[in-house]
């Protein structure tokens, strides 16, 4: 049974988003305001509406504790508010100045993402209000964002239909076309599907798009990738054990090759030295497509090793040559 219990009609234009905390309801609108209501009786709080934005407010979200509210707008800013008194805590400007379409807190409240119309996504330190890392998708504007329940990675969805997985260092872990006509929303299930086998966690992710479809995904996360830079340097080099290689194969959707690699005692050192000849002649992998996929994944691994061992942030390295950019330019 569904029963309407209350209607709120305080906004003067389209309402774009609503969000719940444990005690409040927040709404935001094209009328440039954010409104806060008590869940006890749906009365508007004395310090509502919250006013700062100079253009439409597209998204609002509470921190997990409910004490902070984030709002983002066409004016290119993401604003943090104290929900208890309506005080504005910080104004964080998108580096590109592009309209901000979506914002989302991490589960531990330490980080906040903001995604813009030009495809840029920013990871902010929500405690110091400073920009931590910035990235961008290849095409389209960002329309959706969701953190995994453990906060180790997050997913963005674009108007071009691309679903992109980022780690907490803003490294792109995976990207693929999910919806033909653009993504409108995505969200994680609060509980992992499983946790334990070979250091993997599996999470359910739902995405919905303008193609009239809702897709359910299983996203795997390797604990190795969530470790500190020092641990990553160890794990992404010749120190990998055969078991680490098996974990890596599973994470790359190459689980069927685990037995072959174990039979041939492939550890980290051997993995980095595999060639198309050794895959065909020594490991007896007959499928050309499968060999090509393995080589492609190994090359991606070598690239990560080079990036981590250099100590240079990935955004300073040319995505094509993987060399340090000395005089970079931005093309329109």
TrEMBL record:
Domain of life where this protein originates: Eukaryota
Keywords assigned: Repeat, WD repeat
UniProt repeat feature WD, residue ranges: 50-91, 93-134, 146-167
Domain SAM: 240-304
InterPro entries per the UniProt record, alphabetical: SAM (IPR001660), SAM/pointed_sf (IPR013761), Ubox_domain (IPR003613), WD-SAM-U-box (IPR052085), WD40/YVTN_repeat-like_dom_sf (IPR015943), WD40_PAC1 (IPR020472), WD40_repeat_CS (IPR019775), WD40_repeat_dom_sf (IPR036322)
Gene3D superfamilies reported in the protein's UniProt record: Transcription Factor, Ets-1, YVTN repeat-like/Quinoprotein amine dehydrogenase, Zinc/RING finger domain, C3HC4 (zinc finger)
Domain U-box: 311-332
GO molecular function: ubiquitin-protein transferase activity
Record has Metal-binding as a keyword: no
PANTHER family listed in its UniProt record: WD REPEAT, SAM AND U-BOX DOMAIN-CONTAINING PROTEIN 1 (PTHR46573:SF1)
Protein name: WD repeat, SAM and U-box domain-containing protein 1
Species annotation: Rhinopithecus roxellana
Upper classification of the organism: Eukaryota, Metazoa, Chordata, Craniata, Vertebrata
Chain's gene name: WDSUB1
């Amino acid at each position: 049974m569904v029963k309407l219990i209350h209607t709120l009609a305080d906004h003067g234009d389209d309402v774009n988003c609503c969000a719940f905390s444990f005690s409040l309801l927040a709404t935001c609108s094209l009328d440039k305001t954010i409104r806060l209501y008590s869940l006890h009786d749906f009365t508007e709080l004395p310090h509502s509406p919250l006013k700062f934005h100079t253009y439409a407010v597209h998204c609002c979200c509470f921190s997990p504790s409910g004490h902070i509210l984030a709002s983002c707008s066409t004016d290119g800013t993401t604003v943090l508010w104290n929900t208890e008194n309506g005080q504005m805590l910080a104004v964080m400007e998108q580096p590109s100045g592009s309209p901000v379409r979506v914002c989302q807190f991490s589960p531990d409240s330490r980080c906040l993402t903001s995604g813009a119309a030009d495809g840029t996504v920013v990871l902010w330190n929500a405690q110091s209000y400073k920009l931590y890392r910035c990235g961008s998708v290849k095409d389209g504007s960002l329309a959706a964002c969701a953190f995994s329940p453990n906060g180790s990675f997050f997913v963005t969805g674009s108007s071009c239909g691309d679903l992109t997985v980022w780690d907490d260092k803003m490294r792109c872990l995976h990207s693929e076309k999910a919806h033909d006509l653009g993504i409108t929303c995505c969200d994680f299930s609060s509980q992992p599907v499983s946790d334990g086998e070979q250091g993997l966690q599996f999470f359910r992710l739902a995405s919905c798009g303008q193609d009239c479809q809702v897709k359910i995904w299983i996203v795997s996360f390797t604990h190795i990738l969530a470790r500190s830079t020092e641990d990553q340097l160890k794990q992404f080099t010749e120190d990998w054990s055969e078991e680490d290689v098996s974990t890596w194969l599973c994470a790359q959707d190459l689980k069927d090759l685990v037995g072959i690699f174990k039979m041939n005692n492939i550890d980290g050192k051997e993995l980095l030295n595999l060639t198309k000849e050794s895959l065909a002649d020594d490991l007896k992998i007959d499928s050309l497509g499968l060999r090509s996929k393995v080589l492609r994944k190994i090359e991606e691994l070598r690239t990560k090793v080079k990036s981590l061992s250099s100590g240079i942030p990935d955004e300073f390295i040319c995505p094509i040559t993987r060399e340090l950019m000395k005089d970079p330019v931005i093309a329109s």
